[in-house]
Write a structure and sequence with these properties.
globular; 30% helix
């Protein structure tokens, strides 16, 4: 029978109106009687909370780490045929991140390639940095504690006990990197991934976009627009049209996706020749770091979008009837982290290193169909001293003006890998170029966890050691590092808190049955391989051939010379 330990939390209710007041003297007697009155009349109301609840959260995190590590090892076994056996997951290495994942669909000559890009490498670097910082902080705390103990031992007994203060955070739990969520402590880990507040944790970083383009919400909702002052948009908004020359900063989003397919500009045949040369030699041409293919297509798309926007403006000035602006070349669907959390703020066209100008004032106009149009006010001039001439040499890919061209290198590499593997008709490419069509583009926030795994690896005895006296460890200890994405199934997203408690009643591991763990990065971090050592007896046996015979040492015979001094 299991024993449950309870932790009692007691409090005294406030006296109600009408209770008799004790007015006896002297004052000491009044205090004594009042204390007795509280003890007798107001018995403490105790709220018994199981102490196991305190351990439940830790059990859930341990179960999550173990479940993720188990599925990661299963994937490693399947893909690489490496025999690994999980030993433990050091919880001091367990960390949680909110990453980004970009899902792309690229069509080449009628063949669609599904591509997935993530920032798990950045997460792994951040995990290593945090681990190093935590180790340094722990070492500093240990050194400070040792110094404090030494100082306390050397101090005289005349010092009061209150003069020795404890180090702040000395008793803090080792899981300080784990997020804290308000509410029931039992289901805090579940709320992080599937609760009502999970969407908030998946918020994308602020994104800066340059027009012309449009943003469309799934349904009308309040939108905060700052131009740069707060603007009244007159009600819920579903569509935001960003005119040419306008740069805005978006916040409060969890997902951005392309609403309709986009025909990409044709890449010249020379670009395919450079792709083949890089694939054959392993060396890219000069200027590859600037992502030439991505920059070429983005510039072509930008010109087409500006031409379409100018033609729309001309038709409106012509006096024709038009209920709203024509659809932009690029139309993005945005999903917010919460209702009314979407914020749009005017931003300078160039990032701070290249321009010190303030954000320009925007003209906000509400149109029919819950549409808001953002355009530049006429006659705005920026001071000359706010411009940096280095901006003339800066290259960036539209519609993201604040991102350097080097940041597009993963996309350039992915594009070239697709083109290098696709069976092209070379004659058609020489005549028409490379035709591409962007079928899908969606970027969203994802939950990722990083941790180390202590595993036992199967290491058979080498054949050359057969018959030798050397020992061999068939299961050496190895440490692997992993970054795993936590995916929530639909039934888990809608489950109630009572269902979560019921799952935890069966065991901490049962609470993660509705979750899927996808390894994104797995790498061997450290390996404790077999070390061969030769004892003294084995060395003698190898030198003497197994003969235990005492032999004299070689010497020299000296002859006496009479003429010697």
């Amino acid at each position: 029978m299991s024993h449950i330990t309870y932790q009692s939390v007691c409090y005294y209710p406030k006296p109600q109106n009408g209770m008799p007041k004790i007015m006896f003297t002297p004052f000491a007697l009044v205090q004594l009687l009042f204390a007795g009155f509280l003890i007798v009349a107001y018995a403490p109301a105790c709220n018994a909370t199981p102490l196991s609840v305190v351990h439940t959260v830790n059990d859930l995190w341990n179960a999550l780490a173990t479940r993720a590590a188990t599925e990661t090892i299963a994937v490693v076994r399947k893909n690489s045929k490496v025999e690994l056996e999980l030993q433990t997951v050091p919880m001091e290495t367990f960390q949680i991140f909110v990453g980004r994942q970009h899902h792309l669909g690229l069509e080449v000559d009628g063949v669609t390639y599904e591509l997935l890009l993530g920032n798990e490498q950045e997460a792994m670097k951040e995990a290593r940095r945090r681990a190093a910082a935590a180790a340094a902080a722990a070492a500093a705390a240990a050194a400070a504690a040792a110094a404090s103990e030494a100082a306390a031992a050397a101090a005289t007994q005349a010092l009061p006990a209150t003069a020795l203060t404890e180090l702040p955070g000395a008793d803090a739990p080792a899981t300080g990197l784990l997020p804290v969520i308000a509410g029931s402590g039992e289901v805090a880990p579940l709320q992080l991934f599937s609760g009502p507040s999970s969407s908030r944790t998946l918020e994308l970083p602020e994104t800066t976009l340059a027009g012309p383009l449009e943003l469309v919400l799934p349904a009308p909702e309040p939108v905060s627009i700052y131009s740069p002052l707060a603007a009244d948009v007159g009600g819920p908004v579903r569509r935001i049209v960003i005119e040419a020359g306008v740069t805005v900063r978006l916040a409060g989003l969890r997902r951005i996706s392309l609403r309709r397919p986009l025909d990409l500009p044709r890449l010249p045949g020379q670009y395919l020749a450079e792709v083949y040369a890089q694939s054959a030699t392993g060396q890219a041409e000069e200027g590859f770091e600037a992502s030439p293919g991505i920059l070429y297509m983005s510039e072509k798309i930008r010109r087409a979008a500006e031409i379409a926007a100018n033609s729309s403006s001309s038709s409106k000035r012509g006096g024709g009837k038009q209920s709203g602006p024509v659809p932009a070349v690029i139309s993005l669907e945005v999903e917010t982290v919460a209702h009314g959390a979407f914020t749009i703020t005017s931003a300078p066209e160039l990032p701070p290193p290249y321009s010190r100008a303030a954000a320009p004032r925007l003209k906000v106009r509400r149109l029919a169909g819950a549409t808001v149009e953002l355009s530049l006010r006429q006659g705005q001039l920026a001071p000359a001293d706010t411009f940096n001439p280095a901006a003339l040499l800066r290259q960036w890919a539209w519609p993201l003006p604040h991102i350097e061209s080097s940041s597009w290198l993963p996309y350039e590499t992915l594009l070239r890998s697709v083109l290098a593997s696709h069976p092209f008709n070379i004659d058609s490419v020489i005549r028409k170029g490379i035709g591409l069509r962007l079928m899908k583009s969606a970027i969203q926030g994802v939950h990722m966890i990083a941790f180390d795994m202590k595993v036992r690896a199967r290491s058979p005895r080498p054949p050359e050691l057969e018959g030798s006296p050397y020992q061999w460890n068939d299961n050496p200890l190895e440490i692997w590092e992993a970054v795993v994405q936590v995916q929530v199934q639909k039934q888990t997203q809608t489950q109630s808190q009572e269902q979560a408690h019921a799952q935890m009643a069966e065991g901490a591991g049962g609470a993660w049955e509705g979750f899927r763990f996808v390894p994104l990065h797995v790498k061997r971090k450290q390996s404790f391989q077999n070390t061969l050592t030769v004892s003294r007896s084995a060395m003698i046996m190898a030198l003497t051939g197994g003969l235990n015979v005492t032999m004299g040492i070689d010497g020299y015979e000296f002859e006496a010379y009479p003429d010697a001094p």
